[in-house]
Amino acid sequence: MHHDDPTALPLVERGALRADCAKCFGLCCVALTLTASADFAINKDAGTPCPNLADDFRCGIHTRLRPEGFSGCTVYDCFGAGQKVSQDTYGGRDWRSDPDTAQQMFQVFPVMRQLHELLWYLTEALTLPAAEPLHPDLREALRTTERLTGLPAGELAELDVSAHRDSVAGLLLRAGELERATVPRRRKRSQRGADLIGARLRGADLRGAELRGAYLIAADLRGADLRRAELIGADFRDADLSDADLTGALFLTQAQLNAAKGNTATKLPDSLTRPAHWSPGGPTSA
Question: Do the beta carbons of residue 244 and residue 267 sit within 8 Å?
């Protein structure tokens, strides 16, 4: 059997794919559109700074985002794209002191975020033992994606990032299938893109399930076993993951966890952090 050379390309450090707001120029607070809703207290056009953004590019209500009506901000994750654009692409030049860069910078940021999200998924896929036959292709996709993140600002602004995502999506799908196939007695029926809004899945055995893109909004997943379940793109807004086991869940992100509910008994992959708003307490009663 061919074994991919682990020295051929270093894996991307997960730390570089986590937001470091101290090194960012508040790009998510300016570049993105906000729509008044349960997630955001105001309407804001893309390119317009949020009124809560301070002169030092920090959020003036960071510790009060949820009670102030900005829970959507606590869910958002740029995968480290903010500091990459601020410090690398633009070399530390911010949009306030160099306003000529502003419009382009706000175009580049969402492109970089998508590239960094792909780096997160590809890096994880390369850790999956069952996906070893795909490791050469995954490493090549990782190499290509890393190269794209280093393009000059003008090229990034014009990049067809959707086409690149499509080229990577098939690889990630196959990697997930190979890993899920190792789960004994896994759920055979695909739930890809399924409408599971408010579903009663308390204590469900979802090991190895395909939940790619599933709508799990407000689903009851208390005590569910989601080990090796594929969760890429699954919508966990207000889903209750209290006491659930997500160790080894495939392609889970911090943003998905931040959108959900959980407690101290929820088991998480080592690469992710328990959200601060989750409830304390042990396992819930049956």
Answer: yes
| Distance from C-alpha of 83 to C-alpha of 88, rounded to nearest angstrom | 8
pLDDT tops 70 at residue 1: no
Mean pLDDT within 44-70 = 94
Question: What pairs with residue 210 in β-bridges?
Answer: 230
> How long, in residues, is the chain?
286
Model's pTM, two decimal places? 0.90
Query: 31: closest CA among 20, 45, 41?
Result: 45
- CA dist 117 and 139 (Å) reads 15
**Please, which residues have CB within 8 angstroms of residue 151's CB and are 6 or more apart in sequence?**
159
Residues 6+ apart with CB under 8 A from 195: 214, 215
CA 107 to chain centre: 19
Residues whose CB is less than 8 angstroms from the CB of residue 100 and which lie 6 or more positions away in sequence, other chains included: none
Contacts of 115 (CB under 8 A, 6+ apart): 81, 145, 148, 149, 161, 164
CA atoms within 13 A on the CB side of 286: 3
Secondary structure of residue 119 in the 3-state scheme: helix
pLDDT tens for residues 184-208?
Answer: 876 667 899 999 999 999 999 999 9
31-67 in b/e form (b: 16+ CB < 10 A) is: bbebeeeebbbeebeeeeebebbeeebebebeeebee
Dihedral sign (CA 21, 13, 116, 102): positive
HSE-CB of 45 using CA atoms within 13 angstroms:
3
Residues 217 and 237 sit within 8 Å (Cβ to Cβ): yes
